[in-house]
């Protein structure tokens, strides 16, 4: 029997959310696979998503990364317990599996949802404060965030850039090329 034929995977792909919920709640370590993790990242029913994330936190499979990255689009969820579990998974991966997970967050900075963009900026800022460096911000265009249509995103981006400045000093200016002169002036006053 292939993994695609397994009753566990069939139940996780069921259209009935209660079956999916029960399946995640009863998962055993040997049943968790990259395919199940990929399916979880596409889950839209919050109780089912939270049950799946809880199981991953209990067993912490070594192949969690990179399959779990799409789950980070749920960082803007209004359910605090789910958000804290997703953050716990993020920090587990960052500390134990791969520092590269931080760079995977940068793709969410281009998302159309300003709440998600703000959540990701705050997370990157927290990592910068906690670790003192973002490892490598090359290739990241922070000027788009400073000129974002949402004021919350602009405000959080300003705070992030100031935090990055503490480590990179003048080199941070490379990442904000093309920003309007008035924004640059405000930033330089903060530096």
From TrEMBL:
Sorted UniProt keywords: Cytoplasm, Cytoskeleton
Taxonomic source organism: Hamiltosporidium tvaerminnensis
Entry's Gene Ontology molecular function annotations: microtubule plus end polymerase; microtubule plus-end binding
Main location: cytoplasm
Residue ranges of domain TOG in the record: 3-191
GO cellular component annotations of the record: cytoskeleton
PANTHER family on file: MICROTUBULE ASSOCIATED PROTEIN XMAP215
Example of a GO biological process term: microtubule polymerization
Pfam families per record: XMAP215_CLASP_TOG
SUPFAM superfamilies to which the protein is assigned, alphabetical: ARM repeat
The protein, known as: TOG domain-containing protein
Protein localization: Cytoplasm, Cytoskeleton
């Amino acid at each position: 029997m292939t993994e695609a034929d397994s009753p566990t995977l069939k139940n996780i792909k069921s259209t009935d959310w209660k079956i999916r919920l029960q399946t995640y709640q009863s998962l055993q370590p040997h049943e968790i696979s990259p395919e199940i993790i990929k399916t979880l990242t596409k889950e839209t029913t919050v109780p089912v998503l939270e049950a799946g994330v809880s199981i991953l936190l209990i067993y912490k499979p070594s192949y969690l990364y990179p399959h779990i990255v799409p789950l980070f689009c749920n960082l803007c969820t209004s359910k605090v317990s789910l958000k804290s579990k997703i953050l716990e998974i993020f920090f587990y991966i960052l500390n134990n599996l791969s520092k590269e997970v931080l760079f995977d967050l940068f793709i969410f900075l281009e998302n159309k949802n300003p709440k998600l963009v703000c959540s990701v900026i705050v997370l990157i800022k927290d990592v910068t404060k906690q670790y003192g460096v973002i490892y490598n911000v090359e290739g990241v265009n922070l000027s788009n965030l400073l000129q974002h249509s949402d004021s919350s995103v602009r405000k959080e981006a300003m705070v992030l850039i100031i935090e990055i400045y503490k480590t990179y000093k003048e080199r941070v200016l490379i990442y904000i090329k093309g920003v309007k002169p008035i924004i640059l002036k405000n930033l330089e006053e903060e530096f």
